[in-house]
Design goal:
Elements (H helix, E strand, L loop, with lengths): L1 H15 L1 E4 L1 E4 L14 E2 L5 E4 L7 E6 L3 E5 L7 E8 L5 E7 L4 E8 L6 E9 L9 E4 L4 E7 L10 E6 L5 E7 L1 E7 L5 E10 L2 E13 L4 E10 H4 L6 E7 L5 E6 L3 E5 L5 E6 L3 E10 L5 E8 L6 E7 L5 H8 L1
Parallel strand pairs: 1-22
Antiparallel strand pairs: 2-25, 3-4, 4-5, 5-6, 7-8, 8-9, 9-10, 11-12, 12-13, 13-14, 15-16, 16-17, 17-18, 19-20, 20-21, 21-22, 23-24, 24-25
């Protein structure tokens, strides 16, 4: 009876979640992005960016409203991934790009306001012992960034994932090691950090959870690790990887489900409140809020109809994304 009751509770929670639908924005026929499209980011104007522009791993480009190059690494071995924008202490816009193969974060500065192009790039932080970095989050009040990384193995062990932070001067510090980590995000009040952790066993994915930590953004220190969401318990999709994660201005957490064309939305309390279904993407790799009002949620991933291309869907909502909101404050 206890088992039956548990399954009944699981079903009721999933059924109570709202079902929302994203619509196509960038299709395979028009896309200049490759299958490695990832690392969605938004600038102050609400333009959306991603990596693998021109099917080129060392590059990043703008998706919306138009497609154009943002960054091209001079190192052909680079694998750029996460993208975040920030406003520096002088009020100038800058961007941070994670480079997984060179174990560093690139800082773009000297942005031309009319063209949007950055004239300078430099190494912001670097440590050869980083696993990658893969995804990137930012706490703009302190100028601190947070980086996740992963190592894919058939049987996951602690050390296949890591979490780092770099302060505003670029000094890097490892915060912890985990099983396979991916998505990372900070709450709007910068008091909570979210990190995804997956587990492989015998070559199969068997667990996907979101961890939450208390965060001291001034020092980067984390404490009070806990499970915020466990997809085995929520909807029996433990075998579907979490990828990118984002928060909105109200603290709701949006979690991509890479393989079932879906985003799960959680209230700050951990309650599952809604799913957004993608239309043109099964493997939703990342997401970000943008557009003129910061309420359009863009989902990105390789296209269903042509898996050599990267696509984008959009969900027109009413809540402003945290990253967009923070860029308007400075």
């Amino acid at each position: 009876m206890k088992l039956a009751a548990a399954f009944s509770f699981l079903a009721s929670g999933v059924l109570a979640a709202n079902r929302l639908q994203a619509v196509p924005f960038l299709g395979a026929a028009d896309s200049l992005f490759g299958a490695g499209i990832e690392g969605a980011g938004v600038d102050r104007a609400g333009n959306i960016y991603a990596v693998d522009f021109n099917n080129n791993a060392p590059s990043a480009g703008q998706i919306a409203p138009t497609q154009e190059l943002l960054f091209q690494s001079s190192n052909n071995e680079s694998l750029v991934n996460g993208i975040r924008f920030n406003i520096d202490s002088s009020g100038a816009e800058e961007a941070y790009i994670a480079d997984a193969t060179t174990h560093q974060v690139i800082r773009l500065t000297g942005r031309d306001e009319s063209s949007g192009a950055f004239s300078k790039n430099s190494v912001f932080c670097h440590d050869d012992t980083m696993l990658q970095p893969n995804d990137i989050a930012i706490a703009p009040l302190s100028g601190r960034v947070f980086l996740s990384g992963m190592n894919w193995t058939s049987d996951s062990v602690v050390g296949d994932g890591d979490l780092w932070t770099c302060d505003s001067s670029g000094a890097a510090k490892r915060l912890g090691t985990f099983k396979r980590t991916n998505g990372v995000e900070v709450s709007p009040d910068e008091k909570t950090l979210y990190l995804s952790e997956a587990t492989n066993a015998g070559g199969a994915v068997v667990s996907n959870v979101v961890l939450a930590f208390d965060l001291d953004a001034s020092t980067g220190d984390i404490s009070n690790q806990r499970v915020f969401a466990d997809f085995a318990q929520l909807d029996n999709t433990a075998d579907t990887d979490i990828d990118g994660m984002r928060t909105d201005e109200n603290g709701n957490l949006y979690v991509t489900r890479n393989g079932i064309g879906q985003v799960a939305i959680f209230a700050p309390s951990g309650e599952l409140t809604a799913y957004i279904n993608a239309t043109s993407i099964n493997y939703v790799a990342n997401l970000e809020f943008g557009g003129a009002s910061g309420t359009d949620l863009y989902l990105i991933g390789r296209c269903k109809e042509d898996e050599t291309k990267g696509c984008a869907d959009v969900y027109k909502g009413s809540v402003v994304g945290r990253a967009f909101r923070d860029l308007q404050k400075k």
